């Protein structure tokens, strides 16, 4: 896979990316997933198919980029004033979004058209950044918190593992259970 | 996706499956991954392409089945007489195999050609069964152990998450760290 050109905001490359992504969204919404093809997307975006092939390689790599863009969090996590409340709210929302049919489709797309792992890595970077915000706030309040990688292992990893490999347990109660495991159960706190 | 016919051992269906899987292995070993196509596999297996399309749908679904078959553990986990030693040995081997280029390719294949999630679920079932053997032995020895689902969350999920989404940490030391987290760190045991 050749490296993707960087998209300078406002440059031609960024405009092509925006119009191609928008064309994928529009076609999918109007005609469904099966209608997505490079020629159809190109026609809708007003570019040539070869522009898409040059930049993305194939349909799967394009859909992987679109999926990662959609998986990007739109806002910082809620600030409820307490690490347990913040992580619980974040984990419940993450699980609900990722376990939904749409979320699963994006995760799948992100993984499939991603031979070098860059897009999958970006998904993890998004989650890590959100968790770091929550942990950073807690540290500023003087709360003792685990480090970010430990929270990824004990909270994010089990949710993603069950979404991809092990159906069931994809509920608020499960998210709460994992937060307890990540922070230590309340009944064990002194 | 239509349901796959069951392969009765010794029946025609089982013979077709065995010869097609063997053809995939042989072609891949001789000519590499890029040489795999349904016509080439069919010719090598001595079946018609339509036999493959009827049974597997497409190349991706066939490769998913082949991958799951290769990910099936060949023997029960080592019995070292102690749950910590058993889990450590199992986790180190699991991580080494799954994080290898070959292991990653199989995980990827298993996920990609698996629209209904059955093959990904089978991968998790294999890991769960191995862990259950280790925990069952420990219970028979009177050791207190966590339940299987807790071990999947705290040991298997982080390894798979980092293999798929978050490069780095794929070492024996990381496997050991996760076993400690799953069982409680030794220094905390009374």
Automatic annotation (TrEMBL), chains A, B:
User: Source taxonomy lineage?
Assistant: Bacteria, Bacillati, Actinomycetota, Actinomycetes, Kitasatosporales
- Residues annotated as coiled-coil are none
Species of the source: Streptomyces buecherae
State the PROSITE patterns in the record: HTH_TETR_2
Protein keywords: DNA-binding, Transcription, Transcription regulation
According to the entry, every stretch annotated as the HTH tetR-type domain falls at 14-74
Q: What is this protein called?
A: TetR/AcrR family transcriptional regulator
Question: Which InterPro entries has this protein been placed in?
Answer: Homeodomain-like_sf, HTH-type_TetR-like_transc_reg, HTH_TetR, Tet_transcr_reg_TetR-rel_C_sf, TetR_C
Keyword Transmembrane helix recorded: no
Signal peptide coordinates: none
DNA-binding annotation, residue ranges on this chain: 37-56
GO molecular function annotation: DNA-binding transcription factor activity; transcription cis-regulatory region binding
Q: Which domain of life is it from?
A: Bacteria
């Amino acid at each position: 896979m050749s490296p993707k050109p960087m998209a300078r905001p406002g440059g031609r490359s960024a405009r092509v990316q925006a119009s191609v992504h928008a064309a994928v969204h529009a076609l999918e919404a109007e005609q469904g997933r099966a209608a997505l093809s490079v020629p159809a997307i190109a026609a809708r975006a007003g570019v040539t198919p070869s522009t898409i092939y040059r930049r993305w390689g194939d349909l799967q790599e394009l859909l992987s980029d679109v999926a990662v863009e959609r998986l990007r969090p739109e806002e910082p996590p809620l600030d409820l004033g307490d690490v347990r409340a913040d992580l619980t709210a974040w984990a419940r929302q993450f699980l609900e979004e990722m376990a939904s049919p749409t979320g699963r489709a994006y995760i799948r797309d992100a993984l499939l058209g991603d031979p070098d792992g860059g897009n999958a890595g970006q998904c993890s970077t998004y989650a890590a950044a959100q968790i770091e915000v929550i942990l950073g706030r807690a540290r500023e309040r003087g709360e003792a918190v685990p480090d970010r990688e430990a929270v990824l292992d004990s909270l994010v990893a089990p949710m993603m593992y069950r979404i991809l490999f092990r159906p069931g347990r994809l509920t608020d109660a499960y998210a709460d259970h994992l937060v307890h495991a990540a922070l230590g159960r309340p009944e064990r706190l002194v």
